[in-house]
Amino acid sequence: MLYLERWFLKVVGNPMQAETYQVAKSLSTIRLAMLAMLVAAISLTLTACVDDQPEADADTDDSVEALAGSIPPRADIGATTTAIYNTPASLALGSHRLLIKAEGADGLEFGSPDDDATLVLTQGDEVIEVDTYWVWTVEGFNGFYAANVTFDRAGEWDVRLEGRGGRAATSTINVGTIAPVPTAGQSAIASESKTIDRFDVEDLTTDPDPDLALYEMTVADAVTSGEPSVLVFATPAFCRTAVCGPIVDEVSELRPDYPEFNFVHVEVYEPLDETDNELIPVLAVVEWQLPSEPWVFVVDETGMITSAFEGFLTQDELRQALDQL
Questions:
Q1: Residues 44, 172 contacting (CB under 8 angstroms)
Q2: 271: how many CB neighbours lie within 10 A of its CB?
Q3: Fewer beta carbons below 10 Å: N end or C end of the chain?
Q4: Is the pLDDT of residue 11 over 60?
Q5: Do 167 and 88 share a structural domain?
Q6: What phi, psi does 300 have (nearest 5°)?
Q7: Residue 150 lies in a domain
Q8: Which of 158, 175, 192 marks a domain boundary?
Q9: pLDDT tens-digit readout, 188-247
Q10: In degrees, to the nearest 5, what angle opens at C-alpha 132 toward C-alphas 128 and 135?
Q11: Which domain holds residue 308?
Q12: CA 55 to mean position of chain CA atoms
């Protein structure tokens, strides 16, 4: 659970340096980092009911067995776990993109681009059923189910991910009344951030090959400009998930296709030359109350947030969000 609070705490362990980020762009390093992310992400886990599957092995973890016992019997219950990647602090009434992952005791993942799945959320007599779509974090290697959900009730929701062949993974999530993190339908916070006209490049970003167009205006300038904006809160070198750097690259590559938008990157921590675990969040991150990184926000010309993405996102997802404005 510590990863949910890491912006409140000093960075744990040895952070990646800028030169490491170059390597992190390679497939092998991203694979390792994403596996680490999945381990951290399984903070909300329950067992899954898998029709026609054998019983769990005798040496299955006691905690998993206990959770299995809390689920009404269907057929044989396997030791499959499911995780929702979104940090709990970010979930509240309104619209959200949920990221879902499930994996069996045999190490086989429940899910693929070819395995259509439906997400069913239940609270009392309220039932939300939505189709999911697949997003790759590393093409051909690792991915998640994603679903766009609008919550109109706070409290605990039962979550069920249903796939082909009767496979289903269950979990619960808690939805708050108001999330500390700004979300779609709320006004963007006019925070100050560093720009190229006031700071040297090495003080702006840990990106070893930065797109300087991302540092021409502050967050405040962008969201009050009367033009739509894309805001990226990410730290390529010190990222805990190894997707911050690639996300900055993805956004930068998309920028020339949308000249009518302002694009702003905010480095999450400071000072950028720190190597002894004394990194602290920058003021903009504190004001936006971001519990994790990276985050991407799309803001319309009135300063209203229209889309918010926690963690990784694809260019297709971002294009769709921008094309709606």
A1: yes
A2: 10
A3: N
A4: no
A5: yes
A6: -85, -175
A7: yes
A8: 175
A9: 999 999 999 999 998 999 898 999 999 999 999 999 999 999 999 998 887 655 555 588
A10: 145
A11: 201-323
A12: 33
Backbone angles phi, psi at 297, to 5 degrees: -120, 140
Tell me, yes or no, whether 190 lies in a domain.
no
CATH of residue 116's domain is 2.60.40.10
Q: Total domain count for the chain?
A: 2
Per-residue pLDDT of 37-71, as tens digits, reads: 443 443 333 333 334 433 434 443 333 333 233 32
Q: DSSP code of 115?
A: B
Nearest to 220 by CA among 229, 210, 211: 229
Kindly report the backbone phi and psi dihedral angles of residue 175, in degrees, each rounded to the nearest multiple of 5, phi listed first.
-110, 125
Q: Which residue has the tokens 């100050």?
A: 192
Burial class (CB in 10 A: 0-12, 13-18, 19+), 25: middle
Cα separation, 75 vs 79, whole angstroms: 13
Is residue 147 within 8 Å of residue 132, measured between CB atoms? yes
Q: Are 167 and 110 in contact (CB under 8 A)?
A: yes
Do 162 and 56 share a domain, yes or no?
yes
Q: What is the 3-state secondary structure (H, E, C) of 259-323?
A: CCCEEEEECCEECCCCCCCCCEECHHHHHHCCCCCCEEEEECCCCEEEEEEECCCCHHHHHHHHH
For the record, the structure tokens of 7 come out as: 């912006």
DSSP 3-state assignment of 157? strand
Q: Is residue 31 part of a domain?
A: no
3-class secondary structure, 30: helix
The more confidently predicted of residues 74 and 255 is 255
For residues 235 and 132, membership in a common domain is answered with no
